[in-house]
Write a sequence for this structure.
């Protein structure tokens, strides 16, 4: 086990580490208006999807650290409880950052950051035309935690309409994560970009009830070649190959390989680890359970 070091809240070190720990965070690029119709646009990385029926997003414009005052976005929402959440991808990440500058109230960040205002269909705040996906939202509730500097204000926003760039959709109106080129916030000045090399799939365990790591053979659980991820894959199967299936597999191997080279359990574990890295869980189980 790794040795850990502990930190208490309400220190700069704790705050910095927390933002590195809970990341990457999607960005809520929120457009709002005040009671006089003045437009504001600002990004918030304390944001996520929280429900499907109805579709609910929550984001949090924190109180300013220097004096505990509230931000224009929050003040606008109190005056006019609507917003548009504009999803940020790599093509607009620098403009998004520019829009986070604390301009005086009444300054339109669409203009400052060079964005195109598109009229919304249900709510009054405009959409960011350059954003790949825009969510028109009605504000259900704002929960203010305290009035202290850095305190959260949880804006509970119900999505009433979704807009997406048409070229991102296929014939079935499905979108691929490979095409969105999304970005997210990390700690400090760091962002991350969702590029093809960083995308992978993990099968949801919804169709079967996995055995669990606790039910794996002892030598498998204690293997020097199988990682925690490997054990998670192995524990997600519902049934193990039967002895008859394993014998049939071994017979087929004999026709192609000198299986005596795999007599050592350690060697078979190495083979299984490579198969698991390739997503072949069933094949890995045959090698792990086969005796030579």
């Amino acid at each position: 086990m790794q040795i850990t070091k502990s930190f208490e809240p309400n220190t700069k070190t704790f705050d910095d580490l927390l933002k590195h720990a809970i990341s990457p965070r999607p960005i809520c690029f929120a457009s709002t208006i005040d009671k006089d119709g003045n437009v504001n646009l600002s990004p918030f990385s304390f944001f996520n999807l929280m429900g499907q029926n109805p579709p609910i997003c929550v984001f949090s414009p924190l109180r300013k650290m220097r004096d505990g005052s509230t931000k224009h976005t929050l003040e606008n929402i109190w005056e006019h409880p609507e917003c548009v959440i504009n999803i940020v991808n790599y093509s607009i990440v620098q403009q998004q950052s520019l829009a986070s500058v604390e301009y005086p109230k009444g300054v339109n960040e669409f203009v400052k950051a060079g964005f195109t205002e598109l009229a919304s269909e249900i709510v009054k705040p405009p959409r960011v035309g350059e954003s790949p996906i825009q969510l028109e939202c009605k504000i259900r509730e704002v929960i203010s935690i305290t009035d202290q500097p850095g305190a959260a204000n949880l804006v509970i926003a119900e999505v009433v309409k979704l807009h997406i760039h048409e070229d991102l959709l296929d014939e079935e109106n499905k979108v691929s994560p490979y095409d969105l080129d999304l970005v997210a916030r990390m700690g400090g000045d760091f962002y991350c970009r969702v590029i093809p090399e960083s995308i992978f799939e993990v099968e949801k365990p919804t169709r079967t009830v996995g055995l669990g790591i606790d039910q794996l053979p002892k030598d498998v659980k204690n293997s020097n070649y199988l990682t925690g991820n490997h054990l998670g894959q192995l524990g997600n199967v519902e049934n193990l190959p039967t002895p008859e299936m394993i014998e049939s597999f071994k017979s087929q191997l004999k026709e192609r390989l000198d299986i005596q080279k795999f007599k050592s359990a350690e060697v078979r574990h190495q083979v299984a680890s490579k198969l698991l890295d390739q997503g072949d869980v069933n094949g890995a189980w045959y090698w792990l359970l086969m005796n030579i």
Observations:
- Residues 265-277 form the longest helix (13 residues).
